[in-house]
Write a structure and sequence with these properties.
The protein contains eleven helices and twelve strands. The strands form three sheets. An eight-stranded parallel barrel has the order 1-2-3-4-7-8-9-12, surrounded by five helices. The protein has a two-stranded antiparallel ribbon with strand order 5-6. α4 links the parallel β3 and β4. The longest helix is centred in the middle third of the chain and has 18 residues.
Length: 318
């Protein structure tokens, strides 16, 4: 299996990147902006022989590219989709992807894709099950897998492991690496009534190669991971803690709904660099006083392929 060249400490220091979205194709090709790297949603390019894939190939000639999937369903009881993994490997080889990531979740069963990232009961039995599937996926991909902590809205009574412990043991057992989504930490901990700083204190940062940032929708009683607005002050506070512990992990901003002009997205990820450089302090009081948002539609990173899935959703309806 191909390793991350030079190990995590060298390979994951890509700088500050943004998610590649079709709304920005023309701008990127015409101006070649000073962003450090791009992350592409795997499913948006795997089955495209047309312009999206051609654009991705051109971008990969000038920037490091990482692939980020939403359909591997590593936690499902369905057999792994070998055809999916073969197509993913082909795309990764074609654009010299620095790594390939997905989520610690399941997305469907009996061949039906829910187009959602569904949570797992975190037990020893689940750890064995997922470890076996990660090993199989890595063998078929010919490279280590990178797995992300998902945003969650429920927890299972039968869970016996917390998420940081589960991911640490999974990484040790399989050699996979980790993508720490800082916004997901805040969302999941708020929804569960737990402390996000304590979550970070227990996270295996020695296995982290990438960090995610994104916006969310605060509904008062719960928070929804929407990726359709700027990063909240509370998440910036957590990011500062996470980045200090991650040995300069590659940092990426996701913006999937109500996507603004590229310059706005780029400016948002540059806030991460400003925070790291100490050019501005995070307003902790503002973070603690964040107000609920009005109801809006849920976004999805594969929205331009399957726009009908969540188009009528109302995130703040309980």
């Amino acid at each position: 299996m191909t390793a991350l060249r030079g190990g995590a400490a060298a390979e994951h220091q890509l700088g500050f990147g943004v998610g590649l979205r079709n709304q920005h194709f023309d701008h990127i090709l015409a101006t070649r902006p000073p962003v450090d790297w791009f992350e592409a949603i795997s499913e948006n390019f795997m089955d495209s022989g047309g312009r999206p894939r051609a654009v991705l190939r051109r971008i990969a000639e000038h920037y490091p590219v990482v692939l980020h999937g939403v359909s591997l369903s590593i936690g499902s009881t369905d057999p792994l989709d070998h055809d999916y993994l073969a197509r993913l490997r082909q795309l990764a080889d074609e654009v010299s992807a620095r790594w390939v990531s997905d989520h610690l979740c399941w997305t469907g069963m009996q061949g039906i894709n829910s187009h959602d990232l569904l949570p797992l009961p975190l037990t020893e039995a689940t750890l064995v099950h997922v470890s076996t599937r990660v090993a199989e996926a890595q063998e078929l991909l010919g490279r280590p897998l990178v797995l992300e902590n998902p945003s969650t809205y429920v927890r299972f009574r039968q869970s016996t492991l917390d998420e940081p412990t589960f991911l640490r043991e999974l990484s040790r057992a399989t050699g996979c690496w980790l993508l720490l989504d800082v916004n997901n930490v805040y969302v999941s901990c708020f929804n569960a009534g737990t402390d996000p700083v304590d979550y970070l204190n227990r996270f295996p940062f020695d296995r982290v190669v990438q960090l995610h940032l994104a916006g969310h929708q605060h509904c008062g009683t719960h928070i929804v991971d929407t990726h359709d607005r700027p990063v909240s002050e509370a998440v910036w506070q957590l990011f500062h803690l996470a980045w200090q512990r991650s040995a300069q992990a590659a940092t990426l901003l996701e913006w999937d709904g109500d996507v603004p002009a590229f310059e706005r997205v780029y400016a948002e990820v540059m806030r991460a660099r400003q925070i790291i450089d100490g050019d501005r302090s995070v307003d902790v009081e503002a973070a603690d006083q964040q107000q609920p948002d009005k109801a809006e539609a849920v976004s999805t990173p594969v929205a331009f392929l399957v726009p009908e899935i969540l188009s009528n959703s109302d995130t703040c309806q309980s």
